[in-house]
Amino acid sequence: PLASGMVSLAEQAFAEKRFVDTAYFEPFYLKEFVATVAKNKIIPTT
Q1: What is the pLDDT of residue 31?
Q2: Separation of CA 19 from chain center
Q3: Where are the domains of the chain?
Q4: What is the pLDDT averaged over residues 27-35?
Q5: Is the dihedral angle over the CA atoms 17, 22, 23, 24 positive or is it negative?
Q6: Rg, C-alpha atoms of the chain
Q7: Spatial separation of the C-alpha atoms in residues 1 and 3, rounded to whole Å
Q8: The 3-state secondary structure of the chain, one letter per residue
């Protein structure tokens, strides 16, 4: 979505005083985060 298409939604939320506390905002991701250990393939470990 383009930012220009969100102007009316932002103006409406501002007029209704619907604000989001960005300190506790959690983004919605489609996939779960999976942490992995990096493998260094350039420098061999001894």
Answers
A1: 83
A2: 17
A3: 1-46
A4: 82
A5: positive
A6: 21
A7: 7
A8: CCHHHHHHHHHHHHHCCCCCCHHHCCCCCCCCCCCCCCCCCCCCCC
- pLDDT at residue 41 greater than cutoff 70: yes
Predicted local distance difference test score (pLDDT) of residue 46: 62
Query: For 22-39, what is the mean pLDDT?
Result: 83
Distance CA 38, CA 36 (A): 6
pLDDT at 10: 93
